[in-house]
Amino acid sequence: MNRKYLAILAVLVVAALAFAASAFSRSSSNTSTPTLKGVVGPGFTISLKKGGKKVKTLKAGKYKIVVSDKSSIHNFTLEREKPSKPKLEKLITSTSATTTKTVIWTLKPGSWRAYCSVHEAQMHQDFKVTK
Fold it and tell me: By the 8 A CB rule, do 119 and 74 touch?
């Protein structure tokens, strides 16, 4: 092979490696946001899980939260209860319909509650977010 073809081949290999590294970087950043799965209804139940297990403690940070609302009489709300300032509360689904919604939200350290605001006394799950 002459030098011209070797130089072209080297440029193509470098370009291919750069493209592969870029694609890997994009896919890694997408998978670095942990997913939480919330379910409310159809009865008087509510849950928030990570990897199929009930959430008791989470590390502070950004989460992808996927909520399946199976009842038009319930909603799904996340709220940091302590410390109460600044107030951090997110109504993810409303009581108007059954639906699935996905949000990206940053959870900060404190005591948190996932609950149905209509039936909070019966339908809630408390958890901690640590640094």
Answer: yes
